[in-house]
Every structure is written in C-alpha cells, then in structure tokens.
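Holo prediction — zinc ion.
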Amino acid sequence: MNEKRYDQTNGIMKTYLPYAERHRVVGGVRQKLCNKCEEWKDESRFYKRCTNRDGLAQTCKECSDKATNKCRSRRVKRKALSCMGLDQQYAS
Ligand SMILES: [Zn+2]
C-alpha cells in the first residue's frame, strides 16, 4: 500500500530524472545533479543517504543545509517567543 503511494508521487514529480541523467563523470570526478538548485556538483558535495540507489542525497549539502536552517530558524523563533513569555512572567 505504501509502496504504491510512493511510486505515484515519483511519477508526479517533474524534476525526477532517471539515475543515468542525474550522474556524470567530468575529468575523472563523479558528479551528480542537485534536485533543488539543479547544478552539477561533485558527489562529495552531497550528504550520504543509504536509502537512495546511489547512496547519496538528492540535494547537495548547500541545499540540504538551507532547508535545515529554515526549519531550525522557524523553530528558534517559536522558542524565543515562548522564552520571552517566560521572561515576562519572571519579571512581573
Ligand atoms: Zn543544490
């Protein structure tokens, strides 16, 4: 059931490219096409993701970091607000 759903999302994704089209070798260096910024980067610029066929994440480290930072800053903001509330309670 879950597998069927997974295949459907892959079919809808426009950026999805077959394995061969997302990998190339330039000057002996293996490169991979980032799914997010759509730039060719060395495979060393991708985080490891053992669940993927090539053992690498679909997005480069820069894009992955950006995505994490976005989530993190959103979380920090919420935390900061709650901290402020606590601070006010302490002050009064
Ligand atoms: Zn990228």
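READOUT: The pocket of zinc ion is lined by residues 34, 36-37, 39, 59-60, 62-63 (CB under 6 Å).
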